[in-house]
Design goal:
4-stranded antiparallel β-sheet, alpha+beta
Length: about 450
């Protein structure tokens, strides 16, 4: 058990590592060497990474990949993806290639409204609180003019503020439910700054409101914070084609393929055990783009999964249908993304990722990201209803297994050749390695 340490954040990076290695690695020099191996040789770049967060001791690398051939709204994209799962980029690329000859992906941003709330307690007459809010609403919004002026120049700002009564759920609990537009920024810091100013104004205005009793003048703000649930920051993406253009094999005709595909999505719509894994596959594609472009994938995950449960039961984020001999497959979900602010102007690879995407605005990035999720889901369901998920996944996973056993270049070449015509399983790879090594 490591001892309690005080002032750790004030130690130099070298002293942090020295403490860590002493108390967690028995002073093993290999641990120090591993940490330092991942330091960037460019000192200025390393300092930038060190200052992104607290107590930085090294860098944690993920593969930075690209998936080409995405035709979205008539424009061709190469999509950057940061992810370690071996089959994700290959699956996305395969789906992109399939749909580029069938009209490509169509994507539309429905709305970009984001939400923040001031949570507060108020004891007293509810009707008087409503009258108070109506009296201060305009000056309440105006109180943030210094914060919002630059955002307003870019087309964003405060959209509206509502007083919401939650006192039936928690006694004396109310909200200022605030909606915002943040243009091309994700806008978290902007929203939180506005909310804290709203809270301050609310308390001060209540303290001098003549119609309140002394008790009613004492509003207690519990917290002021944005919400990562943004059901009105919505984007849709879709692919469609005549059923006859779908895969046609000896096992499944195009019609059978379409019906089986639709049934697989229907199962994910009514069965939460399947829906969670179904949506996880969608987020494989979405998170990879979100991470590559310097956005907050944790916020996107939380908002997407909340949206999947918006009707009281967790369900698929995608839909599939057959109408008039046409197959269509679509996704609809909230994506609060930005292309300015945060890491977008700081992290060199984020800059490159946005350049690969030809410097999209926030709406375009929402469309591209939704398409990545839809493509990932299409590839996964395609595998599930035909060959099974493991055939493609394990072939992509083969290199990871070989690297675990420190296979030589020659061993890799022979085993890759062997598994081109044989099923890949962990046990079979181990068996073949043993045979090679006698």
């Amino acid at each position: 058990m490591a001892p309690v340490v005080s002032g750790f954040s004030k130690l130099s990076k070298s002293d942090k590592i020295k403490w860590l290695v002493e108390h967690h690695f028995n002073n093993d020099q290999n641990a120090i060497d591993t940490l330092k191996t991942y330091w960037n040789s460019n000192n200025q770049l390393q300092q930038l990474h060190d200052e992104f967060t607290e107590n930085t001791i090294s860098n944690y690398y993920l593969p930075f990949s690209v998936a080409p051939n995405f035709l979205i709204n008539g424009k061709r994209y190469t999509i950057p993806m940061a992810i370690e799962e071996s089959s994700v980029v290959a699956a996305a690329s395969k789906a992109a290639k399939f749909w580029q000859n069938r009209g490509g992906f169509k994507a539309t941003v429905l709305s970009t409204t984001k939400v923040g709330q001031v949570h507060f307690m108020h004891t007293g007459n509810k009707k008087k609180l409503v009258r108070f809010f109506e009296a201060i609403k305009k000056p309440l919004i105006a109180s943030t003019s210094d914060i919002t002026k630059n955002m307003e120049k870019r087309g964003g700002g405060v959209i509206d503020i509502e007083l919401r009564d939650k006192s039936l759920e928690i006694e004396n609990y109310y909200q200022l439910h605030c909606t915002f537009g943040t243009a091309d920024a994700m806008g978290a810091n902007f929203i939180n700054s506005c909310l804290e100013e709203f809270a301050k104004f609310l308390v001060e205005a209540a303290s001098t409101y003549d119609d309140f009793s002394e008790e009613e003048k004492n509003i207690e703000v519990i917290m002021s914070i944005l919400s990562n649930y943004v059901p009105d920051c919505l984007v849709t993406a879709e692919v469609s084609c005549p059923i006859k253009d779908l895969p046609n094999t000896t096992e499944l005709s195009s019609v059978q393929y379409a019906k089986k595909f639709v049934r697989a999505v229907q199962i994910a719509q009514i069965e939460p055990y399947r829906a969670v894994t179904h949506n996880k596959g969608i987020m494989n594609g979405i998170d990879a783009v979100v991470l590559a472009t310097g956005n907050d994938f944790r916020a996107i995950e939380a908002g997407a999964h909340a949206f999947a449960a918006k009707n009281g039961k967790y369900a698929s984020l995608t839909q599939a249908k057959i109408e008039h001999d046409m197959f269509s497959f679509s996704i609809r979900l909230p994506l609060a993304l930005g292309t300015v602010g945060g890491l977008t102007s700081l992290h060199p690879l984020v800059k490159l990722a946005l350049q690969i995407l030809e410097k999209p605005n926030a709406k375009q990035l929402m469309e591209i990201t939704a398409v990545a999720g839809l493509a990932q889901n299409f590839a996964a369901i395609n595998s599930l209803i035909t060959t099974g998920i493991q055939q493609g996944h394990m072939k992509m996973h083969l290199m990871n297994i070989l690297n675990q056993f420190q296979a030589t270049k020659k061993e890799k070449e022979r085993l890759i050749a062997y598994f081109k015509t044989n099923p890949v399983t962990h046990s079979e790879v181990v068996e073949q390695i043993k045979k090679l090594r006698g």
